[in-house]
Write the structure tokens for this entry.
Amino acid sequence: MALPSKQARKIAKTKQGHNLEAPPAFVEANKPYRWKPGVSANPAGRPPQLKTLAVILRNVLEEPASCIPSAAAIAAQHGLDAAHSSVGSVLAAAMVVQALNGDVDIIREILNRVDGKVVESVQLNLGPLATGLQSSELRERVSIILEREAATVADAVLKASK
């Protein structure tokens, strides 16, 4: 069997949407509209991105504490030099002091930030419950099982708190 000719391969590529060469008439007709060498297609460059709240907060946390009067006052309360401490380090020091005073929410927040949040996973062994079910039926049965488990846990917590 003979290999297809170069022209046949080119036609096959064109039919598949892979035409790599433009027809010469097209190239010639569009020469005046091409970018000249050394000329940018985007002379103004990429437009500046909008700053998100997270970016703004990160920038503020990196500022010296002396730039914000309340941060400078808190730095002084905790024995930090406001000129050489960032707002973020003053905030961290204040959080540690609150945690040492027994604020459970702050303790949890510090541990979540340092060690990462604890991930709770639930394993369900549906066994014969899942055989031959549509995904919507399966979701409904899983939802019912999870609601029962949540109610059981809530009952146990209430009994333990009494």
Remarks:
- The two ends are 88 Å apart (CA to CA).
